[in-house]
Amino acid sequence: MRLGPRPAALGLLLLLCAPAAGAGDAQGEHRTDYDREALLGGQEEVDEYVKLAPEEQQKRLKSIIKKIDLDSDGFLTESELSSWIQMSFKHYAMQEAKQQFVEYDKNSDGRVSWDEYNIQMYDRVIDFDENTALDDAEEESFRQLHLKDKKRFEKANQDSDPGLNLEEFIAFEHPEEVDYMTEFVIEEALEEHDKNGDGFVSLEEFLGDYRRDPANEDPEWILVEKDRFLNDYDRDADGRLDPQELLSWVVPNNQGIAQEEALHLIDEMDLNNDRKLSEAEILENQDLFLTSEATDYGRQLHDEYFYHDEL
Fold this sequence. Notes:
Layout: H1 7-17, H2 32-40, H3 43-51, H4 54-68, E1 75-76, H5 78-104, H6 114-122, H7 137-156, H8 166-173, H9 182-193, E2 201-202, H10 203-206, H11 220-233, E3 240-241, H12 243-250, H13 254-269, E4 277-278, H14 279-284, H15 286-289, H16 304-307
Antiparallel strand pairs: 1-4, 2-3
Helix pairs in contact: 5-8, 5-13, 7-8, 9-12
Family: Belongs to the CREC family.
Keywords: Calcium, Metal-binding, Repeat, Signal
Organism: Myotis myotis (Greater mouse-eared bat)
């Protein structure tokens, strides 16, 4: 039931954060070899990671630790780890969008037109009538999604020129990262979920098409979603989500994910229980650190943006 503003953004978060089948044993223990292959991108990237000489690996890791330590006191706090992980999320999302921009810009004119977007996505230009619904349910669902993409594409275009420049394309792909798209993200969510048009999303609207069977207990996923509605999103406890509360639902919460990972690392690696990590503590258990989001599962050791002296 949870949704994000763009499939690409949500897919990135799932790649970085979600547990996958086979990722652990029957007791739920993490398999670091699985994490490396699944999250570094494949066996080729894993081989590159393994090939890095231990001395060079440690040198780059120490450089990353130094950059995470914002106050240069020799320790990494939960806040510093969380900020670094959030920065890493955003960096890779932006890098992905920049790479996509080159692929979508078929004529290399520095702009991505709506036709170019369609050709890259569907191998042809698609044009639906906004006012004519299709009889086939699947085709109609696709028509609705395509029209939403077109609307978001048009909103991302801030100048009078046709197509999107790089900055506008990033706004299209990651509206949650761009301030001028915030209102659009909220409007889009209300259009989809606010069935009675009162400008809010009730618990019933939040749960979508689910209808409770009085003869049976609610399934587990419904109980989880209700708990999220009540305890995570409905901050003023009025039984409905206002536009700002709605935003916290529809936009991926990188901050919460980063904080959770930071706490996990401190819990696992803090040897003297001072609730912060020294360089020695990290090097003592560097395999855990290198298979965490703090280093994007070791990926940062191969990206000069992170380990170079200037960041």
